[in-house]
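Z., the sequence and structure:
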Amino acid sequence: MPSVSEPFGLVALESLRNGTPVIVARDAGVAEVVRNALRADFWDIERMADQVVGIIRYRELHRELREHGLREVTHSRFGLAEPARRTVDVYQRALVGAMRSH
């Protein structure tokens, strides 16, 4: 999935959530938040090919990437509850600030 045209990498998160090991671009946003993915430069097709072959050939690597990746993206930080809570906190602070200034 290494791509210069997808800035964050929702495809990678969706794949991990479905138990599929992923390869992400080193400089993609998703590479900053997901630990259980292989990384490659988008232009390094030899490295990506080696990683794909490794995932297919080495069952233990596939299993670990699958299990750890799935566990990681099902963590609460990737759910909707935490971002919703943070958004509410921002709005509450903004309202309190606005009420104090009037």
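The first helix runs from residue 10 to 17. Residues 10-101 form one domain.

Let me know what you think.
H.
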